[in-house]
Design a protein that fits this description.
By secondary structure, the chain is mainly beta. It has one domain: SH3 type barrels. It contains 1 helix and 5 strands. It has a 5-stranded antiparallel sheet with strand order 4-3-2-1-5. The longest helix has 14 residues. The termini are far apart.
Length: 108
């Protein structure tokens, strides 16, 4: 997928609170997996202190954050379903601000 289109689509799914199906290659074992995810942010990884932007998603099946580098993403498809950020976000978003602007109420 062309990177510009991927970034634009990802940002739109954040704003619209749309779930996505993402197919990606795991770094640990190169396995190809597909997950239904809620898009969270497009930002450097604070955990690894990387300056490179990553796609941050909530894995709806395994209930944890996925942080994917652009080269890991093989396919990205909007599922047509929406999500409620309040049911996912369990951390203080005022301490860790988002890079992508959105209207998620008190979680914005």
């Amino acid at each position: 997928m062309v990177m510009k289109k991927l970034i634009f689509s990802f940002v739109e799914t954040i704003k619209q609170k749309q779930l996505i199906m993402v197919t990606f290659q795991m770094k640990a074992n190169n396995q190809i997996v597909q997950r239904k995810c809620a898009p969270l942010d497009l930002a450097p990884s604070k955990r690894t202190k990387s300056i490179r932007f990553k796609f941050h998603l909530w894995d709806m099946t395994n209930s944890h954050v996925l942080s994917l580098e652009p080269n890991q993403i093989m396919e990205f498809e909007v599922s047509g379903e929406t999500f409620e950020p309040e049911s996912i976000i369990n951390w203080n978003t005022s301490v860790t601000s988002w890079c992508v602007q959105r209207d998620w109420g008190k979680l914005s």
